[in-house]
Write a structure and sequence with these properties.
Elements lengths: L2 E6 L7 H12 L4 E6 L7 H11 L8 E5 L10 E6 L2 E6 L3 H6 L5 E4 L11 H14 L4 H4 L14 E4 L2 E9 L5 E6 H8 L3 E6 L2 E3 L2 E2 L2 H7 L6 E5 L4 E6 L4 H4 L7 E7 L1
Parallel strand pairs: 1-2, 1-3, 3-5, 12-13
Antiparallel strand pairs: 4-5, 4-6, 7-8, 8-9, 8-15, 9-14, 10-11, 10-15, 13-14
């Protein structure tokens, strides 16, 4: 069964998702269209990067992922299709491919510009047709010329500042939990068994809860701010039974401070 996924900033109240699904079902026999997310903040490439990195990689080889967030193109930075680890991704060359994949890209293709040079709705006019071609067996060379000059952007992760680390927030979910730009493995490598403190505004947390049981059964009820390990492998900040991010003015690209105590 061919699979096409959709990751967009269209929202769920308009007609855009319906238009694209309709054309995909009409073009591709037996296709399964999977909604990854449609409520990404408009034009927020960093949020789209996080969603794609953590939601799309587990699909089977041959899956085609359409990503329509901040989609614009130019002669220098065209719309692109790329292949990574057996899956295909169709999107704008707006920095998202380099943030998602780094150098882990097998091949790329610049999508051809239509005759009048204008795409009113790229996912409908161009991305869906490209998905149908790829699922039909076309190679990226059949789609367009190789495009190696991708826009280079990097995700802010963390930086060392003297005896502390400034860690940036990669994503805030609908529950107000903040995913930090440091994974559990990196944290433990830096920690080396030492005690630590992580400061958010005027609150401090000095315990890492790595299991669901620990988070919900052994946590001190007086201490609402919690540092956990999320399903993505990244450190996650949360407030018990509250939306942490809006209460503490945390959003993407905010930062928190981590100190280790010898």
């Amino acid at each position: 069964m061919p699979i096409v996924t959709l990751t967009t900033d269209w929202g769920n109240q308009d007609f855009f998702a319906g238009m694209v699904k309709g054309v995909l079902y009409g073009m591709i026999d037996g296709v399964q269209v999977v909604d990854i997310a449609h409520d990404i903040e408009p034009y927020n490439i960093m949020a789209a990067t996080f969603v794609v990195r953590h939601a799309c990689m587990g699909f089977p080889p041959g899956t085609v992922h359409i990503i329509d967030v901040a989609s614009s193109h130019s002669a220098e930075h065209p719309f692109v299709a790329l292949k990574s680890r057996g899956q295909y991704y169709i999107c704008a060359d707006n920095g998202l491919p380099s943030m998602v994949f780094g150098d882990d890209i097998d091949d790329t293709a610049a999508l051809p510009v239509q005759e009048n040079g204008v795409y009113n709705f790229a996912a409908y006019n161009l991305f869906s047709r490209t998905a149908a071609q790829l699922i039909g067996g076309a190679s990226l060379r059949d789609i367009g010329p190789r495009h190696d000059n991708l826009v280079r952007r990097t995700l802010p992760t963390y930086i060392q500042q003297g005896d502390q680390y400034r860690i940036y927030v990669h994503y805030v979910d609908r529950y107000g939990n903040a995913y930090l730009g440091m994974c559990y493995r990196e944290f433990e490598e830096l920690r080396r068994g030492r005690h630590f403190s992580l400061t958010v505004l005027d609150q401090e947390v000095d315990e890492l809860m790595i299991s669901y049981y620990q988070q919900h059964s052994k946590a001190d009820p007086r201490r609402k701010l919690r540092l956990t390990v999320s399903s993505t492998g990244l450190l996650e900040l949360a407030l018990k039974e509250s939306a942490m991010a809006p209460l503490m003015n945390i959003r993407m690209n905010s930062s928190v401070l981590l100190r280790f105590k010898d």
